[in-house]
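Structure request: MICOS complex subunit, Ambispora leptoticha.
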Amino acid sequence: MNSFSHSFLLLSRKKLKIYDDPKPDIVVVESPSKLEETITKTKLKARKMLEDVEKQFKQVSDRWISIEQKIDRTINEVVSPKERLMPEVLYVGVAGLGGSVLAKNRGIFLRLTTPIAFTIAASYYFLPVTSHNIARKLSEYEQKSPALVNVHQSISQTTNETKNKIEALTSDIKHTYNDQVKKVEAEVKKIWK
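Returned structure:
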């Protein structure tokens, strides 16, 4: 056999393809660079921090709104709708200032207590229902704190003792005055007889 036939034989055994072999798909795998990884981590941390801040802001906002609503309910419980507030509140304030003016050159105790006493007295005169509601609300708050109850009891006890001493002193002065008047009247009758 000659070489031509031999190559033909080899070719015939091996079929030649009409088309080229398909090229393998090229898969490009993108891997982020260090800069991109750092930026992504920073973005995630910033987003989480922003979400936390928003959550905390919402909690503070909700708490503030609940406090406002509680104050609004308390004011509506205390202030009587049957009483006018505007001029009466001014009268109460002026009474407190008047008490301050009256006690201007007095001792420290009178300078502290006179404006408070005048304010309380004026509030019970000009705003009796509201003043009663305020006193009731204060006693409710006072019952929640045992320390305030003790302070209030000691103040009440001291006030009652002071009141009793003043009443006793006034009674003694009246009794002494009446005795002196009777003695003077008796002396005058002796002289005129």
